[in-house]
Amino acid sequence: MSSYEVVHRAIHFERPDRLPLSFAALGLNDFHGVKWRQIGTGDRSLRETVDEWGCTWARSEMSNMGQVKGHPLLEWSALEHYLWPDPDDPRFWDGVEGQFEGSEGKYISTSIFMLLFERMHALHGFQNTLTDLYLERERIEMLADRIVEFDLGIIENTARRFPGQIHGLNFTDDWGTEQATFIRPALWDEFFKPRYQRLFDACHAAGWDVRMHSCGKVNDIIEGLIEIGLDTINLQQPRALGIEEIGRRFRGRICFESLCDIQHTLPFRGATEIREEAELLLQAWATPEGGFILSDYGDGAAIGVAPEKKEIMLAAFLAADRWKKGTAEAQRTQRAE
User: Fold this and answer.
1) Helices H, strands E: what count in the chain?
2) Hey, which of 27, 99, 251, 276 has its CA 20 to 30 A from 150?
3) What is the DSSP letter of 320?
4) Are 132 and 79 a contacting pair, CB within 8 Å?
């Protein structure tokens, strides 16, 4: 199978012949990314950068993605002079065609960094965003809807410019602390779920899968995400979520992108514990039909994980690859017959 087929079959539970990999750090990647010219966090070598929304990113001396310290809509009065980014701006599309080079046979994904909730608090401030869900409902709805309209414009422009060439959309929205989601699940269902549905529906109409990354213990919103059509969820803290609980509730209903826990296991545990967790994740979260992608955390230095640890983890997942074993067994049976 091609890389595309392996990923597609894993996401849609159609029996891939091996474990799909998003592991560029070790030169193994079934994915190829193309994207509109978003600034995102900007040049990480600089202490400050400004993204396309006017949010200022600040960094410490240590190399890192940074944190938004300048919120252009911290006060609602700033709306009077704020310039919203335009998804039809032709500069966003300069040079995108060239990004397809080297994508043959790969699963091609595009992305929107900070899709909705993260963009809301990057613009308006985290505390302000949470409190204004109650105190300034009309204005916070306006903010959310303007962001959704921008995202829809990016999705529609990408689909129109590159018809049939994109397979999925990746996005980030961190939704949890170590204990729970930032807001009550009922409020998430009321406010955010219908807005995400608009975006997911637009992706599916374009023929794309939808792949979401979210940090924290987001157990209470996974059901809602499944209901509105999320295809893949990237969870990098499986110990915080509860490996057995997540498997019991959602195995076979959504595809997981994950790895050994980036906070508890990879930085602080040895080879034996890493191997045991890799085996447990595949047992608890994957099915014989698919439903799991090994997705690396790209910045190992930031979480204190040396390349040697990643190599141990990769080897452990490959050794426990149930689909490759199943394919080999099926081939042996066919030959015997």
Assistant:
1) 12, 12
2) 99
3) T
4) no
User: Which residue stretches of the chain have pLDDT < 50?
Assistant: 328-337
What distance in Å separates the CA atoms of residue 238 and residue 286, rounded to the nearest whole number?
Answer: 13
Spatial contact of 247 and 284, defined as CB atoms under 8 Å apart: yes
In a domain, 278, yes or no: yes
pLDDT for 325 equals: 65
Give me the number of domains the chain comprises.
1
Could you tell me if 203 and 231 are in contact, meaning their C-beta atoms sit under 8 angstroms apart? no
At 323, which helix (H) or strand (E)? helix 322-336
**For the chain, what's the residue count?**
337
Q: Which two tokens stand for residue 112?
A: 């929107």
Asked if residue 14 is part of any domain, the answer here is yes
Residue with tokens 């950068």: 49
DSSP string for residues in 71-110: -TTSSGGGGGT-----TT-GGGGTT-GGGGTT-TTSEEEE
**CATH assignment of the domain containing 148:** 3.20.20.210
90: Cβ contacts below 8 Å, ≥ 6 apart? none
pLDDT of 110 reads 98
Residues ≥6 apart with Cβ < 8 Å to 148: 116, 195, 198, 199
Q: Which helix (H) or strand (E) holds 221?
A: helix 219-227
Q: Using the structure block, give the residue that is written with the tokens 């046979």.
A: 105
Would residue 135 count as lying in a domain? yes
Give the pLDDT score at 337. Answer: 36
Q: How many CA atoms within 13 Å lie on the side-chain side of 178?
A: 5
Distance separating alpha carbons of residues 56 and 216, to the nearest angstrom: 24
Enumerate residues 6+ apart whose C-beta is below 8 A from 227. Answer: 193
pLDDT for position 303: 79
Of the CA atoms within 13 Å of residue 112, those in its CB half-sphere come to 29
Adjacent-strand bridge partners of 32: 108
User: Would residue 60 count as lying in a domain?
Assistant: no
Cα separation of 69 and 47, whole Å? 11
Find out whether 203 and 155 touch, Cβ atoms under 8 Å.
yes
